[in-house]
Amino acid sequence: MSAAVRVVVVDDQALVRGAFRLLVDSAPDLEVVGEGANGEEAVALVRELEPDVVLMDIRMPVMDGLEATSAIAGLGVRTRVLVLTTFDLDDYVFGALHAGASGFLLKDTPPAQLLDGIRVVSRGESLLAPSVTRQLIAEFVRRDPPAGMARWEATGSPTGPAGLTGLTGLTERETEVLVLVARGLSNQEIGQELFVTPATAKTHVSRLLMKLGARDRTQLVILAYESGLVEPHG
């Protein structure tokens, strides 16, 4: 039996944290190993515990979820950040994409979907809530593509002339896979679309991550949008 996915819950409201802890701990393959009331505590917990996933609220005192996500991404650990947000497409969420968040969920997401989302993000296999993430990214690119490209540089991700040159170095199949990743498809769905096995699809995605220097699939999606390979709302 594999080890349980280790989760840290971060929210400034004690009742919300308690509710998420009860929900996560109700799943036999998930375990809450820590709680934080603000972003500063989240970063400290990640340093100490190196959990698999941080369930991160955005708007908190002391340090908000955006700053915390960026700090966690800079620690060089394998911890993934799953952002909890409302569906108002606020600038905090746009920034969180570039700060290193691996996925997004709405706060009113059904419990079973939240638990599955934690599992998905912990594996790094596919985008969480792709319809939500695609809309967030499309809105971000529509609002501020030049600044978005600059923020890639700030996080050490492929961007600008170098990043776009990297896209020209992709094979035809890798480009096809990147488009499908940007549409929110999982490895299994990519395999079905291209008539290959999920394992082969996973290999293509891994090569894309390596070639483009992206941290995870979320960054691949942003790069696909910002490079113009995939059109917002298209």
Automatic annotation (TrEMBL):
InterPro entries, alphabetized: CheY-like_superfamily (IPR011006), NreC/VraR/RcsB-like_REC (IPR058245), Sig_transdc_resp-reg_C-effctor (IPR016032), Sig_transdc_resp-reg_receiver (IPR001789), Tscrpt_reg_LuxR_C (IPR000792), WalR-like (IPR039420)
Keyword Transcription regulation belongs to the record: yes
Listed SUPFAM superfamilies: C-terminal effector domain of the bipartite response regulators, CheY-like
Top-level taxonomic group: Bacteria
Annotated ranges, domain Response regulatory: 6-122
Classification via Pfam families: GerE, Response_reg
Domain HTH luxR-type stretches: 163-228
Modified residues (4-aspartylphosphate): 57
Alphabetized UniProt keyword annotations: DNA-binding, Phosphoprotein, Transcription, Transcription regulation
PANTHER family: TRANSCRIPTIONAL REGULATORY PROTEIN NARL-RELATED (PTHR43214:SF24), TWO-COMPONENT RESPONSE REGULATOR (PTHR43214)
Stated name of the protein: Response regulator transcription factor
Taxonomic lineage of the native organism: Bacteria, Bacillati, Actinomycetota, Actinomycetes, Micrococcales
